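Hey, I'm writing a tutorial for new members on how sequence and structure tokens pair up, and I'd like a real worked example in the thread rather than a made-up one. If someone can provide the structure for the chain below, I'll link this post from the tutorial.
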Amino acid sequence: MDIFSAASASLQQHAAALTDPIPHLSQLIAHLLSTPVHGEYFPFPQFLVVHATKVALVWSIMTRGKARKDVGVLGDAFGYLVLAWGGGTITSILLSQPPSWLISPAPWTVYPLAYALLIPTGMASYVTRTAPALFLNLVFAAIDGLTRGTTIAALAPALVSARVVSTGWTYTLLSGIAVSGGGFIVSLLSLHEPKWTLAKPSILDGGILNTLDVWGAMLVAAVYSSLLRLHPELDVFATRILPWIPAKLVTLGPTEEQPAAAVHPEAGRAVCVLLLGILLASRAVIQAVVSKDKHTAISKKNNKKKEPAVVQKEEVTVVKSPAKPERTKVTPRKSTPSKSPKPKPKSK
């Protein structure tokens, strides 16, 4: 009975996690941010390791099948670091603050080490080539939702500490830059190509799915600001969003300092991570369906192109068949002349 009761309790806990994922997701984020990989030998947060590994896999996909001997190892590593740190660096410059890689040795330890273990060894290339595309994109969506949502939530106190005049638009715009800035720089300078040249960033090609990294981050920032009542101009969204939030998550207000109800920052961060992850996962599924339909349409088109050739060949065969059977010339058999018997000589 003890085994069955323990199994029943475990199932109930998992069911509660599925029906109410916000508290459990909040605990997971806090654990990744505060727990080191190893307290003695590798005292760096697990969050950095997850992000560095994901960026290495993406960089492997971006540089796959391209001759990059002229770029070199250091140039390739530079492009990888720009992809990982570019957005945060741009945001720090705009806020007149030093980026994290300038004040902490942790990024310089985790990211180059992840690059050295995954890129030159071919491990990242092997994983991205063998894993199913949809599965890999869904894993990337979950990790991006985790890392980007956490970055967006951390940007709010950074604005306060920067002591700059900011509005709700400032926060939402900086969130889009922080999330997609690295990819923008890599695409602008063609750091993933065999030769570095100026090019149009891929995000400027337009499209709802292609620009989801920017407008999705801005939407999540607006939701986070509304949940925490950070900017009065976004209260319109707060009145529509808060009724959908469970009452036990609304832990702040109403008070004299906080006249309207607000969500605890950790719960709001979990909501942002969940929302952004759902958006990115939806894009992965839609792109998989669209690419499958395109592949099916192309194969049907190729089959249609081949069909007329077969019919034409058959018609030619029918035309070439003679209407009248050809007369075959029979070579006459040579008749051997009959040998007449020689006359016998007359006897005298």
